[in-house]
C-alpha cells in the first residue's frame, strides 16, 4: 500500500504515534512485512502480506491516517522474485 498525505506534514505528524501503533499491530499479527515513510515525506509504504487487494483495503481502512482524512492509499500488487525478500514465507498468526 502506497500512501499519499492529504494534509500538511505537521498535521500528519500529530497523528504519527497512533499510526505507528497501528503499524505495530499489523506487524504483531504478521500482516506487515515492512513499512516506512517516503523521502521526501509525502506519504509512505506498507508492504502487506495478504491474499487480496480487498483484504489490504480492509486492513488499511483502520489506519488512523485514513480515519482522520490525513492520507489515502493506493494498492499495488508485488511478488518478490529477487533479493532479500525472494522466497519470503508467510509468518502471519492466523
From TrEMBL:
Which SUPFAM superfamilies does UniProt cross-reference here?
Answer: Dimeric alpha+beta barrel (SSF54909)
Where's the YCII-related domain? 6-75
> InterPro entries from the entry?
Dimeric_a/b-barrel, YCII
* Gene3D superfamilies, sorted: Dimeric alpha+beta barrel
- Pfam families named in the record: YCII
State the source organism's domain of life.
Bacteria
Coiled-coil stretches noted in the UniProt entry, renumbered to this chain: none
Family membership, please give it: Belongs to the YciI family.
What is the official name of this protein in its record?
A: YCII-related domain-containing protein
Q: Which organism is it from?
A: Actinoplanes flavus
Amino acid at each position: 500500500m502506497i500512501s499519499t498525505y492529504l494534509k500538511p506534514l505537521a498535521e500528519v505528524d500529530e497523528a504519527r504515534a497512533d499510526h505507528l501503533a497501528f503499524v505495530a499491530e499489523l506487524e504483531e499479527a504478521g500482516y506487515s512485512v515492512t513499512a516506512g515513510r517516503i523521502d521526501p515525506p509525502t506519504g509512505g509504504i506498507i508492504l502487506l502480506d495478504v491474499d487480496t487487494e480487498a483484504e489490504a483495503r480492509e486492513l488499511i481502512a483502520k489506519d488512523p491516517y485514513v480515519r482522520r482524512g490525513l492520507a489515502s492509499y493506493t494498492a499495488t500488487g508485488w511478488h518478490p522474485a529477487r533479493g532479500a525478500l525472494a522466497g519470503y514465507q508467510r509468518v502471519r498468526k492466523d
